[in-house]
Amino acid sequence: MSTPLRNRRYVAFLGGFLLVALLLAGGASYLASGSPDGLDAVTQTGCSETEGSLQGQCIAQNAGDHATAESPFADYAVGGDDTLTGVAGVVGVIATLVVAGGLFWVLRRRSGP
Fold it and tell me: Origin, by domain of life (predicted)?
């Protein structure tokens, strides 16, 4: 197989992979549950939420916010807006690919001849 053909197939594969990942992240995120954390839901069993505080008897009554609760992508949304879960998914895929690609590039260069 010639090198240009191999490079075209490699670029086509990466392009297809990126397109599928972005479509899944952007499209499937809108179909996902608003409460995907089952452990969080179980710890709130026996309590009801009233104006942001839990009332009743449950494990989560003494829990505090996570250290990144005020971050721009907390709770699978952008800036606390639950309608932007798809945007958060697309940004997450891009960030993951950039970090993973950067690590791969750095590690590949170090182990090369």
Answer: Bacteria
